[in-house]
């Protein structure tokens, strides 16, 4: 009797502790854009150099500009040499670049898609990509409808038997709940949800992935991870940069849509979700969605009580004068778009009842960084804590960027004959303990999409629940704008935000 | 000994002296450690060469390093110790991150009482990785291995691999030990195994794994065991049964087909440890090459369905630092290794 043929590569066992990426044709729409040059191609190059890409892969750059494959590759080589996290070797680049093809076409040109279909078929025949297709929409959302509809009309979105067809969508996933639903419906009309990969690059960062490990692989934290022991949580993502040429997009979006709806709510869900039943993509995302559904809605007057929005004015950063937001090129002089937002939210479930979560994001802060700070309740006001000056609370900080790591503040006796208690910090830095450079978020995410692992991608219901929460705030803001505060660039935000936190006896953390 | 591996300290004062060393360094240095790495050697001047190894890797993998140069055959008993720090600049702020190193020179009885002299100086709660650079000698001392989380050795340097593999199997069999065996020679094959496995991720190539007829492996002088481990890996993963041992081994595949194996020792002496692996079936051939002086593996697949697929991937430098870092970063169980070794042992009969 003949043994059954191999369905999986037996030589892969023990080689990598992850699903193997499958041969495929990757089509990047918006191939001449910034994202492709700065992130996608350098990430793909590094994966190729490490032998992590599938053995058969064709990368087709789809864009409107007239150029040859050779010209396209030369541009990509220059940008990869600039942005790659590892030095580019001539030999490896040549080998990698042999899999790149440029396809010039307008996004709405049906003939262009027919030609694309022929090129993909040719790649299947020549390179053994097996009919698997991965479409990366690295374009503005207003281009999605035309691209998706052309993919469907040309038959490119469908997978043949034994192969797959997936789409990666870049944020923003809509501008409000209605547009997100419309966008999701549009995507799901062409690609089923199981083949839709919505990228939030924060989830590809090592430290974001480590939140689950920290919580569920260490018994000391999880037993304290609830309202019995935690006083409040601060989630912060700030940067010293201004709008940097993105005024057109940013002025329509603002900090709430640009950062809170996606990155910060994702960090909130990872921090607060219940343990998933397994490590499967859907088990994890199910738990994250439950958190979003438990968020106490902020609507009407509550928005003006619990949310502070502000805009930066001219100020000093690193000793240099920087203009105010309204003075930036492309920003209307009367813009009311928020560049700073601070909000206090509650998660109305058993675990987090009564614990305030303070979330803030801003541009033109004195420095940049993202972190989650969990402040534990004070010890009882007896023994060491009965003096007039109370002891500092324990604070566990998960630093997402830069200088990824975890620190814990605790109290210790200062050496000496008198009893003097001081806060001390136990600090773990990834860079100190693990010298090796961590891969870029896009490397992990591209590999996951090729392997069919959607764990680090946002699911439709997650995106829509996040928008439902944010819409309540945006709707209230539309009714009036007299709450818009101002702060000098290079300061840590407006007084109103300080007051918001102070109402709970909380001080915003100095980053 | 002309080389001095740090500040000489009495063995009983090592921890205190390390504390003073940190105090004197002020607050500019950050202490970091993920593991205890002990390196045991019976070679003269090994403290110098192993000191160079630690300096080469401590920046990538923070550790408390314990270097032991032992002469268990010497008369009497003597023990000397030195302490030092390995510091590296890290991060945008340029802070110094430092790891501790303790070096021992042990003679006679002190060398034979390794655990009492050395293992009392471990960083508590961190795993102990012991790199044994000497030959294993019977009888196997269960008390020693009970301390060790991972035992590193390199079968490539063994003069009598048959006997040494048997002794290693005995260490693994000591029921009370939880030691994971890590043969650096097996780690040496990892990037090549990864490159070979990558060839067969293609749906065209995968079915050919069940139709392999010949296997050729070209290896550099003194890397025959490396080549045999590679053969053992393929035979185990593909379910081959040995039908003929010796110089020209033959296997039978799961369908009853014959596989002929040829091992070629390269004559020039400059090649990579394994310079070429060629697998052929009746319809296709698959080749992995590591050319002289190249930092790349080139894999080629040729056949009806495949046309010709050539791929290049980065090959790590073949030096001991890279090898050690690879082993420390993978930190895996090596269950495949034990099975590959069984195939190698069966080849010897």
Give Rg of chain B in angstroms. 23 Å
Low-confidence stretches of chain A: none
What name does the CATH topology of the largest domain in chain A carry? Dihydrodipicolinate Reductase, domain 2
Shape of chain B: elongated
Q: Give the strand tally of chain A.
A: 18
**pLDDT averaged residue by residue of chain B:** 87
Structural class, from helix and strand content of chain A? alpha/beta
- Which CATH first-tier class of the largest domain in chain A would you pick? Alpha Beta
- CATH arch. level architecture of the largest domain in chain A: 2-Layer Sandwich
- Rg of chain A from C-alpha positions? 25 Å
- How many runs of DSSP E, i.e. beta strands of chain B? 17
List SSEs of chain B in N-to-C order.
EHEEHEEEHHEHEHEHHEHEEEEEEEHH
What does this structure look like?
The complex is a heterodimer of chains A (511) and B (349). With 511 residues, chain A is an alpha/beta fold. Chain A folds into 2 domains: 10-170, Rossmann fold (3-Layer(aba) Sandwich); 203-375 and 455-502, Dihydrodipicolinate Reductase, domain 2, CATH 3.30.360.10. In chain A, 36% of the residues lie in helices and 21% in strands. Chain A has a 9-stranded mixed β-sheet, with helices on both faces. In chain A, strands 3-2-1-4-5-6-17 form a 7-stranded mixed β-sheet, sandwiched between helices. In chain A, strands 9-10 form a two-stranded antiparallel ribbon. In chain A, a hairpin with a 7-residue loop joins strand 15 and strand 16. In chain A, helix 1 (34-49) packs across helix 13 (441-451), helix 5 packs parallel to helix 6 and helix 6 (177-190) runs antiparallel to helix 14. The radius of gyration of chain A is 25 Å and the shape is globular. The mean pLDDT of chain A is 90. Chain B folds into 2 domains: 7-183; 188-317, Dihydrodipicolinate Reductase, domain 2 (2-Layer Sandwich). In chain B, the strands form 2 sheets. In chain B, strands 1, 2, 3, 4, 5, 6, 7, 8 and 9 form a 9-stranded mixed β-sheet that branches. Chain B has an 8-stranded mixed β-sheet with strand order 11-12-13-10-14-15-16-17, covered by helices on one side. In chain B, strand 3 (35-41), helix 2 and strand 4 form a beta-alpha-beta unit. By secondary structure, chain B is an alpha/beta fold. The interface between A and B is large, with 41 and 57 residues.
């Amino acid at each position: 009797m003949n043994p059954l043929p191999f369905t999986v590569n037996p030589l892969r066992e023990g080689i990598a502790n992850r699903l193997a990426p499958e041969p495929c044709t990757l089509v990047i729409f918006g191939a001449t854009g910034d994202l492709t040059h700065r992130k996608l191609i350098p990430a793909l190059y590094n994966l190729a150099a490490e032998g992590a890409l599938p053995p058969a892969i064709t990368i087709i750059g789809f864009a409107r500009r007239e150029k040859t494959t050779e010209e396209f590759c030369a541009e990509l080589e220059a940008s990869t040499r600039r942005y790659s996290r590892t030095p580019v070797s001539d030999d490896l680049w040549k080998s990698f670049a042999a899999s790149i093809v440029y396809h010039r076409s307008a996004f709405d040109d049906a003939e262009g898609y027919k030609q694309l279909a022929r090129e993909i078929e040719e790649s299947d025949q020549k390179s053994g990509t097996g009919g698997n297709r991965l479409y990366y929409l690295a374009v503005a959302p207003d281009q999605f409808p035309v691209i998706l509809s052309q993919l469907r009309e040309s038959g490119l979105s469908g997978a043949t038997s034994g192969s797959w067809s997936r789409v990666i969508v870049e944020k923003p996933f809509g501008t409000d709940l209605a547009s997100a639903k419309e966008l999701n419906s549009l995507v799901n009309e062409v690609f089923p949800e199981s083949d839709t990969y919505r990228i939030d690059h924060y989830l590809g960062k090592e430290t974001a992935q480590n939140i689950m490990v920290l919580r569920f692989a260490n018994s000391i934290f999880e037993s304290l991870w609830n309202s019995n022991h935690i006083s409040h949580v601060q989630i912060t993502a700030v940067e010293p940069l201004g709008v940097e040429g993105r005024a057109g997009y940013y002025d329509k979006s603002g900090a709430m849509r640009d950062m809170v709806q996606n990155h910060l709510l994702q960090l909130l869900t990872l921090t607060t979700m219940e343990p998933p039943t397994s490590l499967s993509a859907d088990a994890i995302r199910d738990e994250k969605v439950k958190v979003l559904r438990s968020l106490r809605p902020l609507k009407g007057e509550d928005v003006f009580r619990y949310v502070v929005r502000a805009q930066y004015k001219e100020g000093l950063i690193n000793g240099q004068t920087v203009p105010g937001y309204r003075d930036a090129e492309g920003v209307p002089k009367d813009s009311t778009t928020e560049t700073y937002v601070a909000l206090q939210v509650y998660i109305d479930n058993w675990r987090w009842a009564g614990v305030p979560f303070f979330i803030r994001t801003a541009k033109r802060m004195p420095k940049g960084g993202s972190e989650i700070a969990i402040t534990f309740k004070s010890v009882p006001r007896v023994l060491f804590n009965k003096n007039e000056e109370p002891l500092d609370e324990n604070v566990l900080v998960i630093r997402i960027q830069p200088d990824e790591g975890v620190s814990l503040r605790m109290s210790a006796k200062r050496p000496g004959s008198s009893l003097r208690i001081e806060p001390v910090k136990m600090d773990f830095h990834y860079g100190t303990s693990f010298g090796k450079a961590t891969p870029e978020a896009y490397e992990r995410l591209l590999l996951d999409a090729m392997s069919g692992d959607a764990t680090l991608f946002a699911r439709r219901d997650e995106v829509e629940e996040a928008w439902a929460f944010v819409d309540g705030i945006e709707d209230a803001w539309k009714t009036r704008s007299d709450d818009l505060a101002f702060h000098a660039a290079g300061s840590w935000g407006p007084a109103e935000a300080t007051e918001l936190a102070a109402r709970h006896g909380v001080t915003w953390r100095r980053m | 000994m002309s080389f001095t591996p740090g500040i000489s300290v009495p063995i009983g004062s090592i921890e205190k002296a390390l504390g003073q060393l940190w105090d004197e360094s002020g607050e500019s240095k950050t202490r970091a450690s993920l593991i205890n790495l002990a390196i045991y050697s019976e070679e003269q001047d090994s403290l110098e060469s192993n000191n160079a190894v630690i300096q080469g890797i401590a920046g990538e993998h923070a550790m408390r390093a314990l270097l032991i140069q032992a002469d268990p055959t010497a008369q009497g008993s003597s023990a000397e110790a030195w302490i030092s720090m390995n510091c590296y600049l890290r991060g945008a702020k340029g802070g110094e991150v430092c790891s501790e190193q303790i070096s021992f020179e042990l003679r006679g009885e002190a060398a034979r009482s390794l655990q009492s002299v050395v293992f009392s100086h471990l960083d508590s709660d961190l795993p102990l990785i012991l790199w044994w650079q000497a030959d294993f000698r019977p009888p196997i001392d269960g008390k020693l291995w009970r301390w060790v989380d991972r035992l590193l050795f390199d079968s490539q340097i063994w003069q009598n691999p048959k006997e040494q593999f048997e002794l290693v199997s005995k260490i693994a069999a000591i029921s009370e030990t939880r030691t994971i065996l890590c043969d650096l020679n097996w780690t040496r094959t990892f990037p090549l195994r990864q490159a070979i496995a990558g060839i067969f991720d293609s749906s065209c190539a995968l079915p050919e794994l069940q139709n392999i007829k010949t296997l050729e492996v070209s290896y550099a002088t003194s890397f025959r065991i490396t080549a045999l481990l590679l053969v053992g890996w393929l035979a185990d993963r593909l379910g081959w049964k040995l039908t003929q041992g010796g110089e020209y081994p033959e296997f039978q595949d799961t369908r009853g087909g014959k596989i002929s194996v040829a091992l070629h020792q390269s004559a020039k002496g400059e090649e990579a440890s394994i310079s070429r692996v060629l697998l052929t079936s009746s319809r296709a051939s698959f080749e992995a090459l590591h050319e002289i002086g190249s930092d790349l593996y080139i894999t080629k697949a040729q056949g009806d369905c495949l046309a010709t697929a050539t791929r290049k991937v980065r090959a790590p430098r073949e030096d001991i630092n890279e090898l050690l870092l690879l082993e420390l970063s993978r930190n895996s169980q090596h269950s495949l290794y034990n099975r590959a070794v069984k195939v190698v042992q069966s080849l010897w009969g």
